[in-house]
Amino acid sequence: MANLSAVFSEKERTNWLKAWLAVDIAKAGIEQFVENEAITLQASIYKIVWSSSQAPAACIGCHTANLLKCPTKNVCNKWGSQSTCNSMHDSALKQPRPCPANVCNKVHDEIVKRHRFNNPSWKNTTAQQWATNPWQVGKAYLPPDGYAGKTTVQDTDFNGIISFMMNCKHFYNRLSFLISPGNHNSPCLLTKARDIGKTVRHSSHCKVTDPDLQVIFTTLACLLSDPTCLAHDVAAKEAVRKLAELYRQ
Ligand SMILES: [Zn+2]
Ligand SMILES: [Zn+2]
After folding, report:
1. Which ligand is nearest to the CA of 90?
2. Which one-letter DSSP state was computed for residue 130?
3. Which residues contact 240 (CB under 8 A, 6 or more apart)?
4. Which of 78, 111, 176, 213 suits a disulfide with 15, CB 3.0-4.6 Å?
5. Which residues crowd ion ligand 2, with CB under 5 Å?
6. 140 Cα–ligand 2 center, Å
7. 26-62: per-residue pLDDT in tens?
């Protein structure tokens, strides 16, 4: 960035600052919805798991590593029959073993089933908290790395939150549009919003043109007004109002 005052005096730099704020407003507007949906997702998974057990029992003892075969692709970084796993299954406590209550293994399977590519991000999620913290289930749908320490939706960045909505099939009927419909179709609103977040945060010149700024605000407002659920969400409505106000500044 040239200098700080340029953010306020040069139009395109002011635009970039507005775009940055717009992404923050959108994140705040979508958090409550995502948190509620994570709670619903967790409840629906445990309902299935417990209804399939003869004598339902809670388990608080399984590490994520206990539930994964060794090696598991993209998780264990040593391959081959002679080598030992030095990432996920790195101690006696973290060797693969069945869940004593026959619960966590089933939760694991339900998480996989709901993943768009059957490929959850196990490194992000703590199985010991699956029953108590819905976001530990939600984090299995985030990008593969970098979210292990995040315990709440609020704590998670915009990219992570949007990824949850894109990767978890739970959202298929929570949005009015087809999520990420493939290369031959135009990108969906979630893809566009995710790209906006990345572009704004990684902009090396810290500038946004007027037409680009308009697209950013329109796209984010459009996502936050999605008719299926978000249009009825109080925080999302408030975010749309704030976006309009900021755009007029
Ligand atoms: Zn391993
Ligand atoms: Zn268990």
Report:
1. 1
2. T
3. 29, 221, 224, 225
4. 213
5. 59, 62, 99, 104
6. 17
7. 999 999 999 999 999 999 999 999 888 766 677 878 9
